[in-house]
Input
Amino acid sequence: MLPDLRDDFPLLARTVRNGKPLAYLDSGATAQRPHAVLHAMDEFDRLHNGAVARGAHLLAEEATEAFEGARASVARLVNAASPDEIVWTENATAALNLVANGIGNASMGQGGEESARFRIGAGDSIVVTQAEHHANLIPWQQLAARTGATLRWIEIGDDGRHRLEQLATVIDDTTKIVAFTHASNVTGVVSDVAAFVARAREVGAYTVLDACQSVPHLPVDFQALGVDFAAFSGHKMLGPTGVGALWGRKELLDVLPPSVFGGGAIKVVTLEETTWHPAPTRFEAGTQPVTQAVGMGAAAEYLMALGMDDVATHERRIAQIIREGVSQMPGVRLLGPIGDPDADEVLGLATVVVEGVHTHDVGQVLDDLGIAVRVGHHCAQPLHKRFGVTGSTRASAHVYTTEEDAHRFLEGLASVREFFGVPA
Output
């Protein structure tokens, strides 16, 4: 069980509309930051700011130590084999694009024979799922268009779960990449990673995992999951914006061609050609997001100190209160699973559609009550289309979310249809 952690998060002490206390239920979009993260970033900026791996003076040494120390913390959180399997990126979207663009560059001949394993072209296929966030769909659409490969997808059932029986047919001997979410940002369903990985290995395909919604909320061990690459972001795991991470198997990262070029990533430069450092440095051209990385490392330490099993249990309990309340609410539809027999397969979030009321209007009513939620299509338009809606309202929990927050959300949601005069 987690203790009440609200005092660790200074923003949660403020009031919002007309002095109402804040019930922050938008952590699936961006999480709040604890004192530990804010302090780590402030201390670095005030006392240790310098260029990483660019000088021999004390501040440069301290900055490099802080930067690499943060990488080691994040590596421990996801059980990377070594810190060198963690690549700093601008965000998770950039991490996913790094993999897609690197594969595209390999397909154009960059990287030579070392990178030939990644080549993809006409006659090959890339497989995604109907549940993907746009960040794990569009890069693969673009790679398919660039290389002539075919894009395919695994469909989603009425309960929000993948139709796993399609793995045997959609993924075949032409498949080179299988990219899928670890947990849906709409339904909260946690994917059967083992089933995806097993089928991908049968046909020799690489697996790319969108772990944005899992790393902040669940115990995650990328080595045990068996995927080849995974992306996640700082701002969803109690850290700052402007930083994310790509995890990859070292033997793959070392031969994946970079797609952003410049100083820091290079081994030797002549006027005719350039050679690259091994990973992760080969992907970190230019000035690094040092303060942000320090914050993300501090967030990883904060979560590990809490214990990710306890984090997951706490958040699922909050979400189950919401799911059960919604299931008894007339005119409100829950997207995804309702009951708790499979609670371990669902994240701590609940996404609803209120009949007869636009999702933005739902959000406005809740906002007036001091309740912050996410409204819209959540960057998952194909999944909303699958459910026959254009948008929804999502309440998502984190370590600081309380049962009172959940009950306030349910009370506010119950008032929406009456507020707009929608018949019962």
Remarks:
- The first strand starts at residue 23 and ends at 24.
- The mean pLDDT is 96.
